# Entry
Amino acid sequence: MKKLTYLLLLASTTTVQAQHIPTLGVNKVRITAPGKTIVAELSTKDESEPQTDRSYYWYGSNAVHITQGGYSGKLLHGSYQEFYPDKSLREQGEFKKGLKEGTWKTWQESGALEELTTWHYGQKEGDFVLYDAAGKPQKTGHYENGLLEGKVLIYHGGDSIETVKYKNGLVVSNKLASPSLWQKVKAIKWKRKVSPPENSVPPATAPAKPKKVKKQKDKDTVPNAG
# Structure
């Protein structure tokens, strides 16, 4: 219990002192830029040679820089938070040696989610979701090695869903899950069957033919003598 209390107190102290470099082996900086505020942790160790196909995030001259295949400052390492001017969350995630790692989220100014992505070693790896202005899923799919892979679902509202299939980042097939042409024709035929079209004129009714009356001979009539 004492250990848990100490850890909670330590976390609280680290948050309060976010503007300063802590003395516990982790650098933490606060950067105020036009339209946003960034709170990020930095690496304290020298890193290995960067890879040319990765984009590295690093800190220098009181700003966060992004460079492909290199860096010239302290790499971001640990938690990352970005805020709107009103202090509401704009982006949140984790860095590992300058590369995005794990689940990342971005929010709209309204507070609704805007995007959720999964990263591994600086590449998109795993599921992702894009949201509309109301915070509802608009597009979902999966990444492998930074490329779209498998089915990507695009929601067009209502029950209309577009399915795009990818293989190594290339489109293999595209299908809109809406009623087929045959279903639409069938629905129209059924509608016409149960109710006549508007402004239609009913067909003229043919006059009924008079029934033929069969003449019967009068049994009581005596034939005239010739």
Summary: The CA atoms of residues 27 and 137 lie 36 Å apart.
